[in-house]
Amino acid sequence: MPETSMSPAALQDQELQSLATEWRMRAMQGDQLAHRMAQALEAEQRRRIRDSGLQVLAPAASPMPGPWWKFW
């Protein structure tokens, strides 16, 4: 059985993925502890994905606005 006292934030991405999959499989067999553990690990995965997506985005450069009317 894996170490359950380790914080999900301290795990590497691959370790987090494999543990989340393992705990989710146990949860699907009806283990309530495994269900809570899988939820915690998957929440950490979603947080990392959300945070990494926010870091990649650069601010959009706005084009120079032209006049709202056109001089024929």
SSE arrangement:
Elements: H1 13-28, H2 32-56
Helix pairs in contact: 1-2
Descriptive notes:
Helix 1 runs antiparallel to helix 2. The protein is elongated, with a radius of gyration of 22 Å. It is mainly α and 72 residues long. The mean pLDDT is 81. The longest helix is centred in the middle third of the chain and has 25 residues. Helix content is 57%, strand content 0%.
Write down the overall geometry.
Answer: elongated
Helix content: 55-70%
Q: What is the string of helix and strand elements?
A: HH
Query: What is the C-alpha radius of gyration, as a whole number of Å?
Result: 22 Å
Question: What's this, in brief?
Answer:
Helix content is 57%, strand content 0%.
Keywords:
single chain
